[in-house]
Amino acid sequence: MKVAIGSDHAGYLMKENIKKHLESKNIEVVDLGAQSEESVDYPEFGKKVGEAVTSEPYDFGVVVCGTGIGISIAANKVKGVRAALVYDTNTAKLAKEHNNANVLAIGGRTTTFEDAKDIIDAYMDAKFEERHQKRIDIITKLEEEK
């Protein structure tokens, strides 16, 4: 398994902890930044992760900013990204099962690291339910209308 991960300064510490958690499970993690808590702009990192997930063989991406809101909006501007702001194991599971989300957004200032580990694990354990493919196709068509 291969995961792309990125954050802004507010999500940096959470990103680092998530990265360690994934690596402890022998998952390859590609860190696309930020590399410190020095102020940066989250759209840059949402875009980097979104482009990586849609153009290279990543299983999924993780983006982190203070709340997860801004970076999820930025990631969703990349064609083919279905970024879901998740805040517990149920939303993570449903993001995969119902939406086939390929990027998870987590709030570095609103989520504990223990919860983030559980969220990531719940997402990885979930499987997309094909009965929802029709809705994914509609989303894809919306992107093509731009």
Question: Could you characterize the architecture of this molecule?
Answer:
The protein has six helices and five strands. The chain is of the alpha/beta class and 146 residues long. Helix 2 crosses helix 3 (69-75). The longest helix has 14 residues, at 42-55. The protein is globular and about 40 Å long. 42% of the residues are buried. The model has no long low-confidence stretch (mean pLDDT 97).
What is the CATH first-level class name? Alpha Beta
What would you report as the Rg, rounded to the nearest angstrom? 14 Å
Reading the helices and strands in chain order gives EHEHEHEHEHH
* Discrete helix count: 6
Write down the overall mean pLDDT.
97
Number of strands: 5
Instruction: Tell me the overall shape.
Output: globular
CATH H level: which superfamily? Sugar-phosphate isomerase, RpiB/LacA/LacB
Euclidean distance between termini CA atoms: 32 Å
**Level-2 CATH architecture:** 3-Layer(aba) Sandwich
Strand order of the largest sheet: 2-1-3-5-4
Q: Give the helix/strand class.
A: alpha/beta
The percent range for helix content is 40-55%
The domain count comes to 1
Query: What's the CATH topology name?
Result: Ribose 5-phosphate Isomerase B, Chain: A
Low-pLDDT regions: none
Q: In percent, how much strand structure appears in the residues? A: 15-25%
Largest sheet: 5 strands, parallel
